[in-house]
Amino acid sequence: MKFRYGTWLLVGLIVVALGAFLLWPMAHVFTRACWDQAGFTTLYLRGLFTNPVQVEAVLTSFLIAACVTVSCVGVALPLAWVFARRSFPGKAVWSGLLLLPMILPPFVSAVGMKMIFARAGALSTLCMNLGLADGPVDWLGAFPLLGVVLLETLHLFPILYLNLVAALANIDPSLEEAALNLGASPGRVFRRVTLPLARPGLFAGMVLVFIWSFTELGTPLVFGIRNVLPVMIYNSVAEIGTNPGGYAQVAFVLVVSVVGFWISKQLLSRSRSVATLGRLSSGRREVPLTRGGTVLAYVLIGGVLLLALLPHLSVLLLSIGRRWFLTVLPDGYTLEFFGRALNSDLTRTALLNSLALSLCATVLDVLLGFGIAWLCVRRRVAGSDWLDALAMLPLAVPGLVIAFGYIGCFSGTFPNTLLDPRFNPMILLAVSYAIRRLPYMVRAAHAGLEQVSSTYEEAAANLGASPFRVVWRVTLPLIGANLLAGGILCFSFSMLEVSDSLILAQTEQFYPITKAIYVLIDGLENGLNVASALGVWAMALLGAGILLAASLMGKRMGQMFRAG
């Protein structure tokens, strides 16, 4: 009986926490978008489709997201097929390296990308040196969205790749073998059997990529593109108490994201029910690549990695280059900027703030994530599917929506307290980081609990151990690697959270790393170089975290970036 009461108490605490810091801000956004002093109104929502400036922003945001999604499919699909169906030397190493493009926020990589495509940048100089251009070429001026689309594609394709590898691996090989036995060519089998069976997983990954690129804030900001919805929302923060138009923009973004998330969930459910038909009938045997095929695989993977890591390399060169103007490579090198990135008051405070915030967010995620996974897998309480869906909802809710909602909800409700973001945003920053990364911990704990038999816990309970003692002494040690992997990802990504940091942290003493980098980008006295050096420190931290988490999770790593 005590166990039952404790279970429902845990359910209540989780629902209250998610309701207060996830559902309430979302509801507040919709309320302010549809109600004013005169009552219910659709004026501000209609403005999104009648005001020429807002219409242009909506269309541009959709265009960027569509281009990024299509580009990611073109990059991820051949890679996923090679890794799911073929074996070759160094496959495990290459698979881990494909996650490296995720180790730097796109808006930091944008700094490096600008140095490549700028009028006086490396590409323009290279073209002049080779005689391909008579003078400097303004690539970003001629194609303003090129940098955004290219950069977000290189950053997000690993997410689609992970989804595709899982989808292709779940297809029963006997279905493809039957088609081959009936005389179909390998290409026809891929088009008529493999791709249709993998399509739900493919579309689910595409939806996630679309949502992430549609709501990306930092990259357009750095590239100077202002006519997109996320940047307009960022600019409307200053008018949050007087202009409901910002709430309407946030509400529209939220609707697009949640609808996309729901579609992704449905597609993943269909993928699991269709692609695994007859799965136990035979095991898949990976076909070894020939020597020529191995060379082609290396060229494909190496080419994608080189292109994807080029902005990161550019950031690294900026962090050690004395001068980089109308040259292919920097003119002179120094380590001075790394020291300045750690020793200035701004960066030192930002580093300490990010460490404290990320640590708090990780602790919250471990507690909430394990509690939700335990309730869904071990206790199977009524409504566990809804609880799991609620926990995964932050994948669909952009950080700028949560941050905007927090300012709207808490600024006037708790004036001059630790819950007032204009007075001290630290608590809300930690909570927003935790909410945003909660799905990673839930999926990690979920995978661990499903992998470990409940027999051990039942044996401990039969020997008289209390429920808490069973969880503490049996369950947690058995899934410790999964919790560690989820915690590492939560901590690493929280250190480099962008939207929440840019919106909630308004004064220098509360700046996290990402806000400090954004401020330094336009700073004087080598501010761009110092920002790049700070980005390299962050890149090293997140890269180590992702690789360590991948080694702990193995093939289950893809579950961390899926809707369910």
Give descriptors for this structure.
564 residues; mainly alpha; MetI-like fold; 2 domains; two-stranded antiparallel sheet; two-stranded parallel ribbon; 25 helices; 4 strands; 1% strand
Number of helices: 25
Low-confidence stretches: 275-281
Mean pLDDT: 83
- What gap, in angstroms, lies between the N and C termini? 32 Å
What is the H/E string? Answer: HEEHHEHHHHHHHHHHEHHHHHHHHHHHH
Query: What is the level-2 CATH architecture name of the largest domain?
Result: Orthogonal Bundle
**Biggest sheet overview:** 2 strands, antiparallel
What is the CATH T-level topology of the largest domain? MetI-like fold
* CATH class group of the largest domain: Mainly Alpha
Q: Number of folding domains? A: 2
What is the global morphology? globular
Report strand %.
under 5%
- Give the strand order, joined by hyphens, for the main sheet: 1-2
Q: How large is the radius of gyration?
A: 24 Å
Report on this model:
With 564 residues, the chain is an all-alpha fold. It contains 25 helices and four strands. The protein has a two-stranded antiparallel ribbon. Strands 3-4 form a two-stranded parallel sheet.
Short description:
By secondary structure, this protein is mainly alpha-helical. The protein is built from 25 helices and four strands.
Topology:
Layout: H1 2-34, E1 35-36, E2 39-40, H2 43-50, H3 52-85, E3 86-87, H4 91-97, H5 106-117, H6 122-129, H7 139-142, H8 146-169, H9 173-181, H10 186-214, H11 218-223, H12 229-235, H13 245-274, E4 287-288, H14 291-320, H15 336-343, H16 345-379, H17 384-392, H18 399-410, H19 426-451, H20 455-462, H21 467-478, H22 480-495, H23 499-504, H24 513-521, H25 527-553
Parallel strand pairs: 3-4
Antiparallel strand pairs: 1-2
